[in-house]
Amino acid sequence: MPPIRNAAATRERLLACAHRRFLNESYENVGLREIAADAGVDVALVGRYFGSKEQLFKQVLRKDGGNWQSLALEADDLPRLLADLSASKDASQNAAHIERLLILLRSASSPQASSLVRSGFSEDVLQPLATCLSGPDAQLRAAMAMSVLLGTAIVKSIISLDVVQECDSTKYRDAVAKVMTAALADPK
């Protein structure tokens, strides 16, 4: 009997494998053949479901990227929420937000992916977050907060700086929350 094929499950498996690859490698270093092999399918299916590497990358950025606007609107304390995201571990519910930022960061210098990264970050992260901020210079303040979040994500997740890794999690969150408060403040 031939195996039962499920297009939706195959597509999701390809997205999950692409997510893992783009999380750990830059856009240029990720190959469609490797993604297909990770998913256990023929590389032709990547083209069938996504059209191109660029389209697959766009889908990875959109999938499970989190809704920054609803996240910010639901927060009682936005600086603390962003600090919690900064301190999240891979298994936490907030990891999707940090992973998405890391995927963007890893491929930001790519000549092929840089425009996708800029537009995705602006449309899906900065603009929704800025919408939640009252007062002047909301986009600038959102950008400053994301600068802090990306910086802490780099130091914690990519560089794995010992002083950060060994720091008490409450102390770390409190320190990041103070910086986030300053980043989100009206720059007058």
Number of domains: 2
Main β-sheet: number of strands, strand sense, barrel status? none
- Please state the CA-atom Rg, rounded to the nearest Å: 18 Å
Unreliable residue runs:
none
* Strand-residue proportion: under 5%
Mean pLDDT: 84
Oligomerization status of the protein chains:
single chain
What is the helical fraction, as a range of percent? over 70%
How far the N terminus sits from the C terminus, by CA atoms, comes to 71 Å
- Net shape: globular
Describe this structure in words.
This protein has 188 residues and is mostly helical. The protein folds into 2 domains: 7-62, Orthogonal Bundle (Arc Repressor Mutant, subunit A); 68-184, no CATH class. It is 70% helix and 0% strand. The chain is built from 11 helices and no strands.
What's the arrangement of secondary structure elements?
Elements: H1 7-24, H2 32-39, H3 44-50, H4 53-62, H5 68-74, H6 78-87, H7 95-107, H8 114-131, H9 138-158, H10 162-165, H11 169-184
Summary, kept brief:
By secondary structure, the protein is mainly alpha-helical. Helices cover 70% and strands 0% of the residues. The chain folds into two domains: 7-62, Orthogonal Bundle (Arc Repressor Mutant, subunit A); 68-184, no CATH class.
